[in-house]
Each structure stands twice: as C-alpha cells, then as structure tokens.
Amino acid sequence: MTTDATAGTPNQGSRPHVVLGVSGGIAAYKACELLRRFTESGHDVTVVPTAAALRFVGADTWAALSGKPVSAEVWHDVHQVPHVRIGQTADLVVVAPATADLLAKAAHGLADDLLTNTLLTARCPVVLAPAMHTEMWEHAATAANVATLRSRGALVIEPAEGRLTGADTGKGRLPDPIEIFEVCREVLSRGVAAPDLAGRTVVVSAGGTREYLDPVRFLGNRSSGLQGYALARTAASRGAEVTLVAANVSLPDPAGVKVVRVETTAELRDAVVGAAAGADAVVMAAAPADFRPVATSGTKIKKAPDGSAPPLELTQNPDILHELSTDRVRPGAVIVGFAAETGDDTGSVLELGRAKLARKGCDLLVVNDVTGGAVFGAPDNQAVILAADGAAVDVPLGSKAALAHAIWDQVVARMP
Ligand code: CTP
Q1: Which candidate, 51, 46, 130, places its Cα nearest to that of 93?
Q2: I need a labelling partner for 297 at 20 to 30 A (CA). Which of 78, 113, 213, 319 fits?
Q3: Is the preceding peptide bond at 310 cis, omega within 30 degrees of 0?
C-alpha cells in the first residue's frame, strides 16, 4: 500500500504538521473536506486512517489529497518507526470522525494500529470529533471514555444534532468540517496542550434582536453576530461547554456548540437567564433592542389614504446584562458585557465605558469604538477590556477570534 515515508515527515519549513486520523464511520467522507481545508491553508498533513476507515474512503483518495503516502498499519516502513515518529513530530492530532470504538481504544491506551499508536505518542494538542448514532454516543461506556479523554487534556468536540446515517435524526452527527477546521486552527494558534476552559460551562449571546411592528416589519440593528460566534468558537476550542444564544444570525453553527435561536429581546432574555443558572461565565455580545413597540399588529400595517404615518409607541426592554449582574444566580460566575460607544460631549469612549461598567454592575466590559460604523460585519476588531477591579487591557486591532481569546483570558483569570 505504501512506499515510503509514512513515518513522521519532519515539519516542512514552518508549516504546522497536522495528523488527521480518520476512523471507520460513514462520516469519513467529510474528512476529505477537512483535509482540503488544512492543505489549502498551508498545513502539512499526514492522514492516518484506520482499516475500517479505508472501507469508506480509500487510501488513494487520502494520498492524492494530502500529497503523501498513507498507511493504516505499523508494519509499513518499519525502519522509519512510524508508530512513534508520526505522533512525536505532530503539532496537532485531530481525529474526525472518531467512532465509539476509537474513543474506547484511546481512553484505554490500546495501540493495535497506526492511529492508536500515534495517539499514545503525541505530546501535542489532540482534538477528537466523535460521530456515531445517538444510542452509542449516550451509552455509559462512551460517556465514561469521553470523560477520561477530557480529563487527560484531549479536546472532545460535542457532536452536532441532525440527520444520521439512516432515516433517523439525533445527536451524533459530525459537525461541519469547516467548523472542525476552525476549532483546530484556534487550538494550533494557541499552541497550548491543555484546554483551559475544560469542565467550564459558558453562555454567549450574539447577533441583534428584532422587535416586530407587524408580521413583516421590525426594529433591528446592525449586529452581524461575528464577534459572538468567535467567542463561542474560541471557548469551545478551549474546552468549554458552550451555549450560544443567537439572535437573527445567519452564520454556520460553530462545532461543538449548542445553538439556541431567538428573535426578540424577551426571547433572548429568557434563553440567556435560563442558561446562566448553570454557567461559570456569561458574555453578552448580542445587541438587544432597547425598545419594542407597545403593540405588535397581527396583520400588515397598511398606508393611510391621507398620507399620515402610523403612531409608533415604544416601551423599554429589560436590561439583561444588568439583571444578570444584579441577580448573580450563580455566585462566582463571571459576567461580561460589551459597549459599542462613539463618545460624545459628555465623555470619551473610555469614560463612557467606565460609567457603563459601573451602571451595569458586570465584572468585565469590552469597550469598542464604533465611530463611523466600523466593526459591524468586519472581520477585525479592537477594544479595551475594562474590569470592575480597575484593570484595563488594550487589545490591538486583530481578528475577532484574537479579541475573543483576550476576553477568555480575562475571564479565566477571574474564575474561582
Ligand atoms: N444589553 C442587555 N440588554 C439590553 C441592552 C443591552 O443585556 N436591553 C447588554 C449588551 O448585550 C451589551 C451591554 O448591555 O453587553 C451594553 O449594551 P449597550 O447597548 O451599549 O448598553 P445600553 O444599556 O443600551 O446603553 P446605551 O444607553 O449607551 O445604549
């Protein structure tokens, strides 16, 4: 099957060396897309399938897509000691899909093929993306294996819910390969072996709420949800159990994240406050509409023949961040708010930020300067993270993921 050099090809230049393990589930075909993402973004990838994975996708496909020979066994190119070297030289090992069988072997340290040997020798971060039927995922044996792997520092991504192999649906789908790639990229970017939010539960809100005037019209705002999604994705890549409450966002679900969709501020409040009861941190990145119409028409509001505009009476929405910060349903939970400010004649952006931090009562406030509409829908962001304990951290212009990591760093530092 293989001719040479399946063993840990040394890192080519500064290209990160990724080992893509593939175990024997039908979702193996989705790993081809994951592989392409890695190679197209400059990663050096060694694919290590199991024998069962090769029944779904052949070695030639993996070899052609990775540009390298492929083997499932330890008995090829023995002189290069592949069962040790591949793991030793990796910057990241990701297994997608990871079957119940693969998780069991990894949890118990079995090493009867090249992939399981690689998992035993790797000292780099290990990401496992399970995919299986719901019954197998929920089985006590699988749950115990996942808990063992997590306790040893592996990042086990929660499977997605949806259509499974047959006609059935439920939890157990492999998340979108593009989103698995994003998690891997975050893990690689940090270069830390152990996820520091492992065992923590966090809630993130994202997007902008809508307050309906009638079935077709609403009051809304320009929030794209990108910063909130970056927060959810980075938290998942650091091992947290994440609930993302998304208001009117059209972005793909981040891998391993539970997404709750809402429309209005009242729905956002109920979802966030409900999830906050069990959370170690809540980050309010959403832009809730501050006002809603006193009444919503059940039918489309028609133009008046006399040219007059209909009256628009508004009432104030609940302030969710203030409520979370005041009620403190979970003592010790870190509450984070955002403030998009332009500055005005009453104060600078930072002065308004400090005043808002005190008014809201949260632990951290991420202050954005949105003068001129910058930030909305943009890939980059810059901010100052103000803390109730007086600290202020400047985060220079960079990706929204970089700001998200800076926020989690501050959250982790304040977790009991
Ligand atoms: N927020 C909230 N509930 C609201 C409005 C805002 O939880 N009804 C949260 C936002 O998610 C954000 C923070 O409060 O984390 C600050 O939002 P911002 O719109 O700047 O605050 P406002 O209280 O609306 O202040 P302003 O009067 O400056 O608009």
Answers
A1: 46
A2: 319
A3: no
What are the residue ranges of CATH 3.40.50.10300 in the chain? 201-414
Q: Which residues line ligand 1 (CB under 6 A)?
A: 265, 284, 286, 288, 290, 317, 319-321, 337-340
Query: What amino acid is encoded at 395 in this protein?
Result: V
Of 351, 356, 407, the residue with max ligand 1 atoms within 8 A of its CB, to mutate for a pocket test, comes to 356
Q: How far is CA 327 from the centre of its chain?
A: 27
Q: Which residues are catalytic?
A: 221
Q: pTM (2 decimals)?
A: 0.93
- Best residue among 227, 244, 319 to mutate for probing ligand 1, ranked by most atoms within 8 Å of CB: 319
What digits encode the pLDDT tens for the residues 94-143? Answer: 999 999 999 999 999 999 999 999 999 999 999 999 999 999 999 999 99
The CATH 3.40.50.1950 domain(s) of the chain lie at: 2-190
**Record: fold of 201-414:** Rossmann fold (3.40.50)
Q: What are phi and psi of 374, to 5 degrees?
A: -55, 165
